[in-house]
Amino acid sequence: MTTSVLVPSSLTREAEDKREATRKLGYVARAATVFRADRLTIIPDPAGEGKLDGGFVETVLRYAATPPYLRKEVWDKRDELEYVGVLPPLRVTPRTGSGSNDSGSLRQGLVTEVGSDGRVRVNCGMQHPISLAVPSGMEAGEGERVAVRIYSREPVRAKIVDDPLPGYDVDRADLDAALSRADAGVRIAASRHGVELTTDRLGQLVEGIGAGDGGDLTVVFGSPARGLPAILGVDAESVGPTDIDEAVTGSESDTRFDLWLNTIPDQGSEVVQTEEAMVATLACLTLTE
What we know:
The protein is of the alpha/beta class and about 290 residues long. It contains seven helices and eleven strands. The chain folds into two domains: about 5-90 and about 165-285, SPOUT methyltransferase, trefoil knot domain (Alpha/beta knot), CATH 3.40.1280; about 105-160, CATH 2.40.50.140. The strands form two sheets. Strands 8-2-1-10-9-11 form a six-stranded parallel sheet. The protein has a five-stranded antiparallel sheet with strand order 5-4-3-6-7. It is globular, with a radius of gyration of 20 Å. It starts with a strand and ends with a helix.
């Protein structure tokens, strides 16, 4: 099961300065982490961008996704990272074990040196880089990140495993390309113009997501200044089916989505921030039966 979250390159447009923009991206990173998103993709919205473009958004989100023990080694000083001190900690939960230091926990490691005997030295947050064997059929070059399962810290017992890295991946892609991925699954556009989510519809929707395409899910969000209809250039009055029953047929004006969904049907503010919409929407869509 893969959960992909798509956000526009314009989502920091209304931030007063780079510091506030960085803080906002920190909240986006937190939402992606809390609800276990596997991928955070930035889709282009050049018409809505302000002084800070998609490159800034991508860099800050990548930095936020980097474990604190690797940030100094991975990232040089860059203008985009001037205010990363305001980013909230993500505290990514390991896939196994009850904490990052527990036996069997999974964490990111950075290959710092490649040996000639099928072993590499890996910085994975221990006191010093540790020497580990590369699994058969897997390549690990200098500077690459690998998943390391730690069984004991004293004495050190760990191994490189061919598992997804903890946390989320960050990339940039055109919307059509992102929605055409093999693991796109059920494709939902989060918008106040979509079908209003109710308690009855929620159970129906969660059941449909679990039953379709292996539970894979892609959710697309707009920015405060420009909602998804404006970003995509579609008519806001005819963006989606009138009920979740019709979701599989898509929209007459935009068949790229299975459903346009309004998860805050009675919003009390004229504008919902992207990070707020992420929390409201992913909290519903990631529920289990």
